[in-house]
């Protein structure tokens, strides 16, 4: 069929030409993004502008619909493009120190998170010093002339480390911590240091390759204006900062971290005790089961010490987890009965409590499932 072959060849050549033009346009867009990054760098502006991004997505969706394209498809493409743009800007902004010439002391800097932030501060041009457990005899020397002391040691020794550090700090030094609880460290810092105090909780691990859209909770302590440059540095790296009081932070983290991790641990432990053949279950699994099992496996592929610290951080968390187990005991009676009507009533009550978030959860989880299907 020579005519058909010739026609297909011509069309494919035109498609190839369009693809080349798309690549050229993306390269031109990247160059413009780099110019934007330079302007933001000069004026100390953050890379991420949520309102502009969402406005741009809405415009592109409308343009797609007007041209007969699927808006969801076009949105996905532009979200990828914008994520790459943010990464480009963040690489440029990461080299900028919000406070040029400042010196940062990382207490616990040899640990995973300490080493992680050592890289970020160093590549931004800060002078970085490390204080580890064997360095306390040199604490006065290491603290001399610093601008920020960032404490990142295990929770059970955080209070002690802060108390030992405090007497060596100049009144103008910002004292901050990066632990996953905030009430205890904040009290300890305020007691040990008369100068500016700031609580920080990065909601990500040391394996995170970029700070783009990563959340850092900021808990004010004392002299907020003198702490501002530290917050702005995280923002310059691409992080999104969320402010919360220490009590609110710890209450919410008990749900977001401790309860979630403990429930995941309990599920994985049960599968292990039952001797479940994981690979065989995957042959029968729906994408949502694979996604859920992936989150369980992800937890057990990491350091138990990290999750132990999070789960057993304070009595508030353990009290909530005990209440969670009591709730499961109530459900045991429902199963033993068995009482299907009670299940329906409980289900309806919880669904009503979730409200509109249920629809949002369906959309977001469907997106993740579609991505998982593409992968596997």
Give the helices and strands, then pairings.
Layout: H1 2-43, H2 50-66, H3 71-94, E1 103-107, H4 112-123, E2 127-131, H5 139-143, E3 148-151, H6 155-165, E4 174-177, H7 183-192, E5 197-202, E6 215-222, H8 224-236, E7 240-243, H9 246-274, H10 278-283, H11 287-300, H12 304-311, H13 315-336, H14 340-354, H15 357-375
Parallel strand pairs: 1-2, 1-3, 3-4, 4-5, 6-7
Antiparallel strand pairs: 5-6
Helix pairs in contact: 1-3, 2-3, 6-7, 9-11, 9-13
Give a quick set of tags describing it.
376 residues, seven-stranded mixed beta sheet, 10% strand, 3 domains, Rossmann fold, globular, Chorismate Mutase Domain, subunit A, alpha/beta, 7 strands
Number of DSSP strand runs: 7
Helix content: 55-70%
- CATH fold-level name of the largest domain: Rossmann fold
Named at the architecture level, the CATH assignment of the largest domain is 3-Layer(aba) Sandwich
**Structural class determined from secondary elements:** alpha/beta
Task: Tally the structural domains.
Answer: 3
With strands numbered from the N-terminus, the spatial order across the biggest sheet is: 2-1-3-4-5-6-7
User: Based on CA inertia axes, which overall geometry fits?
Assistant: globular
Radius of gyration: 26 Å
CATH class of the largest domain: Alpha Beta
Total of helices: 15
Distance between the termini: 37 Å
Strand-residue proportion = 5-15%
What order do the SSEs take from the amino end to the carboxyl end, as H and E?
Answer: HHHEHEHEHEHEEHEHHHHHHH
The biggest beta sheet reads: 7 strands, mixed
Q: Which superfamily, in CATH terms, is the homologous superfamily of the largest domain?
A: NAD(P)-binding Rossmann-like Domain
Provide mean pLDDT, rounded.
90
